[in-house]
């Protein structure tokens, strides 16, 4: 039986039917084992899994599901081999600099996929984006988003020299004033939940999301959602 996840172990897992089906639909070759609880074998979700994966990879075992799952009511665990992707140089990127919360990383993947972004750069040190907690928070988006880690923002820029737009509080350039940008790949850059971005990453494209005086800042994933929506649907490329 698969052991509980530890960083660097070479595998991770999904918890629940929906993310497990996303795994099978998008990265079936990475699947090592599917554990299903006894009480779930008559469900439509189980029938869907049976149609997507060879039966010899399915193990019916409530004990295994209980051991690996955190919530206790997931009924299915999908174990998969982990790997690091390479981002596409021709697409827009989201860059998260030193995020510390695995839930935020997973939620960012879900938000990215909602607005058509599929390339995520992670600047280390940062939260473990391969952890099942991050996979769970992504709600299946983990398997559609390319993820690549870099030891510094400079290393990211060397590999992918995109024009980049840092989101910060210390600028007069507000998001609503940005109406058009050059028609080429860009990077939208977001900082740590507590400290934001370091000043040496600020540039002439630095942007602040307007907000009322009644709050000090937006949650990281909320800021990412607002920014990605505008850059996908409002801001024109010329």
Description:
The chain is α/β, with parallel strands linked by helices and 238 residues long. Helix content is 28%, strand content 20%. The strands form 3 sheets. Strands 7-6-5-10-8 form a 5-stranded parallel beta sheet. Helix 4 (102-114) links the parallel strand 5 and strand 6 (119-123). Helix 4 (102-114) packs parallel to helix 5 (132-138). The longest helix has 14 residues, at 220-233. The mean pLDDT is 94.
Strand order of the largest sheet: 7-6-5-10-8
- What helical percentage do the residues reach? 25-40%
The mean pLDDT is 94
Overall 3D shape: elongated
Number of domains: 2
Task: List the main descriptive attributes of the protein structure presented here.
single chain, 238 residues, alpha/beta, 60s Ribosomal Protein L30, Chain: A, Alpha/beta knot, 2 domains, four-stranded mixed beta sheet, elongated
Helix/strand layout:
Blueprint lengths: L10 E5 L1 H10 L4 E6 L7 H9 L5 E3 L1 H7 L7 E6 L11 E5 L4 H13 L4 E5 L8 H7 L7 E5 L2 H7 L3 E4 L13 E2 L4 E5 L29 H14 L2 E2 L1
Parallel strand pairs: 2-3, 5-6, 5-10, 6-7, 8-10, 9-11
Antiparallel strand pairs: 1-4, 2-4
Helix pairs in contact: 1-2, 4-5, 4-7
